[in-house]
Amino acid sequence: MTSSETKIITRFAPSPTGFLHIGGARTALFSWAFARKHQGLFLLRIEDTDRERSTDDAIQAILDGLDWLDLTPDAPPVYQHQNIERHREIIDQMLAEGLAYKCTCTKEALDKMREKAKAEGKPIRYDGTCRNKESVPDDLPFTVRFKAPQEGTTVLGDLVQGEVSIENNQLDDLILLRSDGTPTYNLSVVVDDHDMGITHVIRGDDHLTNAVRQSQIFDALSWSRPAYAHIPLIHGADGAKLSKRYGALSVEAYKDMGFLPEAMRNYLARLGWSHGDDELFSTADLINWFDIAAIGKSPARLDMEKMQATNIHHIQHGDEDVLADYVMEQLSLSPENKTKLMTALPMIKKTAKSLDNLVENLRFLFLTRPVKLNDKALESLTDDKMANVRKVFPALQKLDAWDADGIANFFGKFMEENDLKLGQFGPVMRNILTGTGSPLGVYDLLLLLGKEESLARLDDILAN
Predict the structure, then answer these.
(1) What letter would DSSP give residue 176?
(2) Res 3 pLDDT > 70
(3) Pairing of strands 175-177, 143-146
(4) What residue spans define the domains of the chain?
(5) Where does this chain carry the motif 'HIGH' region (predicted)?
(6) Angle at the Cα of 410 from the Cα atoms of 404 and 414, rounded to 5 degrees
(7) What is the pLDDT of residues 437-453, one digit of tens each?
(8) In 10 A of CB 42, how many CB atoms?
(9) What is the pLDDT of residue 51?
(10) Which residues are documented as binding site?
(11) Span 136-151, mean pLDDT?
């Protein structure tokens, strides 16, 4: 970016009336990635002007979700309701400049207006009754309406949707200020985007009509419009709107399901955006590659199998320090256990299907003796297989070279001399060593547990 170029500033602007869902998370991700790609700023605005529906819990859920995804804004959040006086100031300015007008039409009058339009087969919108009144009585309640252009066309050059145009006679004079004195969404958004210096608005295409409305207000105030990029919404695997059954869950729910934040960033990025055939990539790659032009125009479909596969990839290739810290927290391990954990992680993470699965597969390392066997493990202790384990045990006690080669060579020789196969005793030993079974083979388990602990666990069962 040269000094003469405008600094890219994007924003994520959720309404805090519920949790941060996966669609909102993707919008935030695209806005964040675009800003990072261009060394710009990513800002957060909480659009909480609907005070009745906005909740502190929802705000915290949004902040927590962004924090977990590591989509950190470059400034403290802006709370829209705190800007209400600034919004009213602009409305007063628009009234003074003839860009807006007071409307005293009652609810009853507006209802009749709608009924008449419906009966005549016309679009249901405000008919401009108060548009050209020179003044209104001071004692009547009023709203303030935007004096929208009535002729010509409003054209929006959308970075995803292409050129979008609407005939101005299809739009009515939208309300800027309600009768209770509160500014409306479209006015507040325009003022805040202008005051925050937003250069690019990336959001769902359900806001496309709002963008046309907002563009008219920007133009009326002689303010530069931001560039708009309206992205298609996310659908379920069946092509229908997302439901709780098909992915419309909070970001926190995916966290609780054992997804890594980098896996979620990877998968969400592929919902509607692509870089060739690349499916699995790092966040650094995403920032380097991200381009609004590569966002498609068709709705993306949420595929839980692909999401889980992406998560598995990132766990199996993930930063082992990060994974170890997570496991230590989940298992309430003390710091001195980290060395043992780090020794096992390279093996165990290759088998993990989720973070929860990773934790469970590592739990065996830190069990206290005697290890309690679950029902399935107990059922595996058949007489014939236990007889083979009893035959292995005294020979294993004499093994000095307790390393990968030593253990493998020992069992190879033992099976040859006793005409046994590993399946005749290995799975049972694995169940005894872990209490629950393991995706690792018995050789790896013996190596990770060490000679003393391995023999002690085996002896606890064999001695009974």
Answers:
(1) E
(2) no
(3) antiparallel
(4) 82-231, 319-366, 375-462
(5) 14-24
(6) 150
(7) 999 999 999 999 999 99
(8) 22
(9) 78
(10) 244
(11) 91
pLDDT tens for 208-245 read 999 999 999 999 999 999 999 999 999 988 788 776 55
Answer for the pair 176, 91: CB distance below 8 angstroms, yes or no: yes
Nearest-angstrom CA–CA distance, 442 and 419: 18
Q: What pLDDT, on the 0 to 100 scale, is given for residue 149?
A: 95
> What average pLDDT does the chain have?
93
Sorted by sequence, the CB contacts under 8 Å of residue 322 that are 6+ apart come out as: none
Q: Give the pLDDT of residue 247.
A: 61
Pair of tokens at residue 6: 């405008």
Model confidence, pTM: 0.89
Quickly tell me which residue has 């502190």 as its tokens: 56
Q: How many Cα atoms within 13 Å fall on the side-chain side of residue 239?
A: 1
CATH of domain 82-231: 3.40.50.620
- Region 109-121 average pLDDT: 84
CATH code of 375-462, in short, is 1.10.10.350
Residue carrying structure tokens 């046309």: 212
pLDDT of residue 1: 45
Which two tokens mark 246? 């098909």
Residue by residue, DSSP assigns 41-103 as EEEEEE----TTT--HHHHHHHHHHHHHHT---SSPPEEGGGGHHHHHHHHHHHHHTTSEEEE
Q: Are 71 and 32 in contact (CB under 8 A)?
A: yes
Token readout for 222 is 């002689």
H or E segment to which residue 429 belongs: helix 426-434
**Residue whose tokens read 């390392």:** 365
- For residues 270-290, give the mean pLDDT: 97
Residue 407 binned pLDDT confidence (cut-offs 50, 70, 90): very high
Helical H segments across 270-403, by residue range: 283-289, 304-316, 320-331, 338-348, 355-362, 375-379, 383-397
CA quadruple 15, 12, 221, 156: dihedral sign: negative
Please list the helix, strand and coil fractions of the chain in percent, rounded to the nearest 5, in that order: 50, 10, 35
- Six-digit token pair at 17? 């009336």
Residues 6+ apart with CB under 8 A from 432: 371, 373, 377, 381, 389, 457, 458, 461
Task: Report the range of poorest mean pLDDT among 56-70, 129-143, 295-309, 448-462.
Answer: 129-143
Please state the φ and ψ torsions of residue 418, each to the nearest 5 degrees. -110, 5
Which residue positions form the known binding site for ATP?
244
User: Is the pLDDT at 129 greater than 80, yes or no?
Assistant: yes
